[in-house]
Specification:
Length: 417
């Protein structure tokens, strides 16, 4: 009967798409003989109580190139963030020195403001970007912590401290940084900034470049720290974080708009370059009023090449090359242009500083722009002239005396006669 086809014929066979063999048509459907395969795990949404931990998100979805630390590990490393391990503060973070218990490695731990983020996703996304930035002149990120509402970053420890400690208020027993080392630091810092601007993907605006953020290792190789933290302070729709401690290093347009750009980074680099040349703080209230701002103090000397040597740190004495000084001061003046569009790119700065570091030192006599010694022979000639004239005068006096004595003798002879 046509209305019950399954009871007809019974001997027909059909090709099974599942097995590739001919099966009886009146056999039971495959779905009734073999249970269906389970759906792939990713297609099944997890229950709320089985949501992955932040560290699992980082390793699977964001590929963070760093270790995920538990908060208790970092608390133990810093002795529970005690004040004697506090080595610095920023606009929205505190910096602690610590030692990891498992490896004994000394590290720097930045504890970020827990209220600066709306959730783990924003924080982990920024950490993922930072962890992919690698350069010889950038401080490496070792890991992070995102337990609960804790937000921490773990960096390598730089044993020689920061640049400020080698330029300002030196103790009597500490040797000042020489000219060649200062240029090496400037060149390395410029390379790190160039990498962030022109080679990182996506490019990174530093936002808070200053001497205290230039860290040094045992060989005094510079490495930039805190790069990208300005972005971390803004995630989640928050207002830009204040650049604490950067007064005097900020570009004029940043003071007006509060917006950091690559060209404002170039300006800040120019400030640090003047500090390396002069050994002065960006803002020093102990100086006379007209010298408190290092840029305002340097500006008149930028306009007169004959005054460039007045910019040099007195502790350097006669160690610098005159040609190198002229070029590095000219570069600093370009970085500090009021109009951001005429400031150079960091690639141009790197090229110039790289050339200067390869220059051989000038001969000692030509290394110091001292007053010309042409004035010294003049007194000698005057002295010799005066000596000769005085000797000639003495000769004339002797001749006069002899003539007078001769006349007296003639008069005596005449009287005797």
């Amino acid at each position: 009967m046509s209305c019950f086809p399954c009871f007809g014929g019974g001997k027909k066979k059909s090709l099974s798409a599942d097995t590739g063999r001919f099966d009886d048509a009146d056999a039971a459907p495959a779905s009734q003989m073999t249970p269906p395969a389970p759906a792939p795990a990713p297609m099944t949404p997890p229950r709320p109580d089985q949501a992955p931990k932040p560290s699992e998100d980082a390793s699977a979805g964001l590929a963070i190139a760093g270790q995920a630390f538990a908060f208790r590990e970092l608390a133990a490393a810093t002795d529970h963030f005690t004040p004697y391990n506090l080595i610095g503060e920023g606009g929205f973070f505190r910096v602690y020195k610590g030692q990891l218990e498992k490896t004994g490695q000394t590290v720097v731990i930045k504890q970020l403001d827990r209220h600066g983020f709306q959730g783990n996703n924003e924080f982990l996304d920024e950490v993922s970007k930072l962890s992919r930035l690698h350069h010889d002149n950038l401080v490496d990120i070792i890991g992070y912590c995102a337990d609960g509402d804790q937000r921490l970053l773990v960096y390598e420890f730089m044993s020689a401290g920061n640049l400020e400690e080698h330029l300002f208020d030196l103790p009597a027993d500490k040797k000042p940084m020489d000219w060649c080392t200062r240029m090496k630091v400037a060149y390395g810092a410029a390379q790190g900034l160039e990498y962030l601007h022109e080679k990182a993907s996506p490019p990174v605006v530093y936002g808070d470049f200053k001497a205290s953020n230039v860290l040094l290792d045992d060989a005094l190789t510079p490495k930039l720290s805190d790069f990208g933290l300005a972005q971390l302070g803004q995630v989640g729709g928050n207002a830009p974080a204040p650049m604490m401690g950067s007064f005097g290093c900020c570009a004029p347009e940043y003071d007006r708009s509060g917006q950091a750009t690559m060209k404002s980074d170039v300006y800040s680099f120019g400030v640090v370059l003047v500090q390396l040349i002069s050994g002065r703080r960006a803002i020093d209230p102990d100086k006379p009023t007209e010298e408190q701002n290092v840029v305002a103090w340097a500006m008149p000397m930028f306009k007169d090449q004959k005054r460039y040597h007045e910019l040099v740190d007195p502790l350097i004495k006669s160690e610098y090359a005159a040609k190198a000084l002229n070029q590095v001061v000219a570069m600093a003046a370009m970085c500090l242009q009021e109009e951001d569009s005429v400031r150079p790119l960091m690639a141009d700065v790197v090229m110039t500083l790289g050339f200067l570091t390869s220059l051989p030192p000038d001969p000692p006599a030509a290394s110091v722009p001292a007053p010309a010694p042409s004035a010294s022979p003049a007194p000698k000639s005057d002295h010799s002239d005066s000596s000769s004239s005085s000797s000639s005068d003495d000769d004339d006096d002797d001749n006069d005396n002899e003539e007078e004595e001769g006349e007296e003798e003639e008069e005596e002879d005449a009287e005797e006669q």
